[in-house]
Design brief:
The complex is a heterodimer. By secondary structure, chain A is of the alpha/beta class. Chain A has one domain: von Willebrand factor, type A domain (Rossmann fold, 3-Layer(aba) Sandwich), CATH 3.40.50. A six-stranded mixed sheet of chain A has the order 3-2-1-4-5-6, with helices on both faces. In chain A, helix 2 runs antiparallel to helix 3. Chain A is globular. Chain B is elongated. The two termini of chain B are 58 Å apart. Chain B is an all-alpha fold. Chain B has a two-stranded antiparallel sheet. In chain B, 85% of the residues lie in helices and 1% in strands. In chain B, helix 4 packs across helix 5, helix 6 crosses helix 7 and helix 6 packs across helix 10. Classes of the chains: A alpha/beta, B mainly alpha. The interface between A and B is medium-sized, with 22 and 21 residues.
Chain lengths: 212, 473
């Protein structure tokens, strides 16, 4: 009887103390604010709201803009690591939605598009949070346009990350030569998968069910 | 194969040669083979027979144990019922017959009053009328002498007669009225006596009824004590009924506990966190479950302290003072937990509204965030359920006790049936192996039909020769 109790206690302690892999989710969303794409931000706001509704306690979420130099904390529009208590999570989500809404109303278009810098910032943020699932959403036409002097010829380590390109719009030049559009997608897919990441494209924003 | 068919230049001849050799070999080792098959079959038959006997012995032991358990449970149950019947009789005697002396005095007083009134109500014979003597005097008078005065006398008599008649009638009416009054006074006493006697009759009838019940119960108790088969049969069937009924009620209780769990699991996340885990389970769920289990435990202790159930003999054997204290302590804890649950149910509703409002905001559906006018009804209902369910779960102790007690006998009955089936199967298998041995021997002899036929012929001719030899001698 004593031995049985001892074994049960040990099992219980082992169950309590054993290190379990984190099951929370970290999402980092990059918003392209360059040129005419700035007009698409209302759609981005819908996606952010949808993402907020899908996230739960202890998840992390950050929204950052892509501008001339995106590898900077200053470009983060809103970020939150959700609390453990459901009531606090609801408050955080409402505040987050409000911050994004204010940004969408006041966002200025940026002259350049530094997607790689934003990606680096996203990886750094999510690694720091140490979430179980790491997802980077890129709301952009994926056409990178760097200012002179910016070096972005870097392999971003994306092992364990899922990168989802959203609303990849076709540019006017893409209509003339679709190979440009397909080439951009292929190039980004290659960059992501080369360093161990998973790549997806979702252009139909009505079908966001499988986003997270 | 080709080697076997190649021992002669002709394959058919080789095959025939092989057949002859094999048959010859089989014939030569026939007795040994038969003995081996017989030994193996008999060995298996005996092994299974021994195993079947062992299983049957276990079954008998289990049956005896189950019988003892059934009898003990039945004896205990009957003792409880008898105890309760005696309590009821005691209560009846204490309540109705304790004031028997007062009742007797009341009846005697009523009867005394009736006797007195009856004595007073006796019809008094009227006095003889005064004019009778006057009539006698008139009759004795001389007709010649007093003829004149007779008329006057008769006239006076007539007047007196009328007067006396009036007085007599008046006196008679008065006396009758007094007697009727007395008789009227007697009526409530009669009724009182009748009522009291009816009460006494009812009490006595109740006692007689209870005594009949006790006689029946005592008879059943004696049957159980003597371990009669009828008692065992009754106890066994009632045990099965108790098992299924209590299992059904426990299922309902589990449903109640599940509802209770869903009421408090969500708001519990506010207290212990929504994502922390113990093993593979959410801490909030475990905390909610623990609260419900603690409530059920408190309910069990409360029922034990009230002596409604007898799952823990220690509690039943506590001194009355300690037991009453325990009743109050468990009830207080239960009450506090029920209040906590009501609060959590309210919190759940608040959280739900908050979550719905947030979802609506995220959907951009601001109109949906407005709360309904009658939402307080669901809030109140949830709080009410949160408060009532812990008390309702308290009564789980009763079916649980029945379930636990009947489970022993039901498990025993199932085990007995299993062992009986196993024993039968082992016996069957033993016999199957025995007959399989006989069958194998017969099958072994099939390819040997030619040498066996020859052997039989030879044996028969040898017998015939022996018979002829005996006849010749």
């Amino acid at each position: 009887m004593k031995n049985g109790c001892l074994i049960a206690l040990c099992v219980l302690l082992a169950a309590c103390s054993s290190e379990t892999a984190p099951r929370n989710t970290g999402v980092y969303m990059l918003l392209d604010t360059s040129g005419t794409y700035n007009e698409e931000l209302n759609k981005a706001e819908q996606i952010i709201r949808y993402t907020l509704s899908k996230l739960d306690a202890t998840d992390s979420f950050a929204v950052a803009r892509i501008d001339t130099g995106s590898f900077s904390e200053k470009d983060i529009v809103a970020k939150a690591s959700f609390d453990d208590r459901p009531s606090a999570v609801n408050r955080q989500k409402r505040l987050f939605a409000q911050q994004v809404s204010e940004f969408v109303d006041t966002a200025d278009p940026s002259p350049y598009t530094d997607i790689t810098g934003g990606l680096l910032q996203a990886v750094e943020f999510l690694n720091e949070k140490g979430t179980g699932n790491k997802t980077i959403l890129i709301f952009s036409d994926l056409k990178e346009d760097l200012e002179a002097g910016y070096v972005r010829d870097i392999d971003v380590e994306l092992e364990g990350f899922e990168v989802i390109a959203l609303n990849v719009t076709k540019l006017r030049s893409d209509n003339i030569d679709p190979r440009e559009y397909l080439g951009r997608l292929e190039e980004w897919q290659g960059r992501v998968e080369k360093t161990g990441g998973r790549w997806r494209v979702i252009n139909d924003l009505d079908g966001l069910d499988g986003l997270l | 194969m080709s080697f076997m068919l190649g021992i002669t230049p002709w394959p058919v001849a080789s095959a025939i040669l092989w057949i002859i050799l094999i048959v010859a070999a089989l014939y030569l080792i026939r007795n040994t083979a038969h003995n081996t098959i017989k030994a193996a079959a008999q060995g298996l038959h005996r092994s299974f027979k021994v195993a079947a006997k062992a299983v049957t012995r276990s079954e008998k032991k289990l049956e005896a144990r189950n019988r003892d358990v059934l009898l003990a449970a039945g004896r205990e149950a009957k003792e409880r019922i008898l105890e309760r019947e005696f309590d009821r009789i005691n209560e009846t005697v204490r309540k109705d017959l304790a004031n028997y002396s007062a009742l007797h005095r009341s009846l005697s007083e009523s009867i005394g009053r009736i006797e007195k009134d009856h004595q007073e109500a006796v019809d008094v014979p009227p006095d003889p009328p005064g004019w009778v003597k006057a009539v006698e005097a008139v009759a004795k008078m001389n007709a010649q002498e007093d003829r004149y005065s007779v008329g006057n006398i008769l006239s006076d008599i007539h007047k007196s007669l009328i007067k006396a008649h009036k007085e007599a009638m008046s006196a008679y009416h008065e006396a009758s009225a007094r007697r009727h009054k007395l008789l009227r006074h007697m009526r409530p006493d009669w009724r009182r006596i009748q009522q009291k006697l009816t009460q006494v009759g009812k009490s006595v009838d109740s006692l007689l009824g209870r005594s009949v019940t006790i006689d029946r119960l005592m008879q059943e108790y004696e049957d159980i004590v003597h371990g009669q088969d009828r008692a065992i049969s009754v106890l066994s069937s009632s045990s099965l009924v108790n098992f299924f009924v209590s299992a059904f009620v426990l299922c309902i209780a589990i449903g109640g506990a599940t509802i209770n769990f869903s009421l408090i699991a969500r708001p519990m996340a506010e207290m212990v966190g929504g994502t922390s885990l113990i093993g593979n389970f959410r801490t909030a769920d475990i905390a909610a479950l623990v609260i419900i289990l603690v409530e059920i435990s408190m309910g069990l202790f409360l029922m034990e302290s009230l002596r409604i159930t007898r799952l823990f003999p220690v509690i039943g054997a506590l001194p009355d003072k300690t037991r009453v204290r325990m009743i109050w302590i468990t009830f207080t804890i239960l009450f506090l937990l029920a209040s906590v649950e009501a609060g959590l149910a309210y919190m759940r509703e608040v959280l739900l509204h908050d979550e719905l409002a947030t979802s609506a905001l995220l959907r951009g559906d601001v109109g949906a965030t407005a709360t309904g006018e009658y939402m307080w009804i669901t809030t109140a209902a949830q709080m009410g359920m949160g408060f009532i369910l812990p008390f309702a779960l308290t009564f789980v102790a009763i079916p649980l006790e029945t379930f636990v007690h009947s489970l022993r006998t039901v498990v025993g009955l199932i085990a007995i049936s299993f062992l009986r089936a196993l024993s039968l199967m082992l016996r069957l298998l033993g016999n199957v192996f025995l007959y399989l041995g006989i069958l194998l021997k017969q099958i072994y002899d099939i390819p040997l039909f030619v040498p066996l036929w020859l052997e039989e012929r030879m044996a028969r001719s040898a017998d015939d020769d022996a018979v002829l030899g005996r006849v010749g001698r």
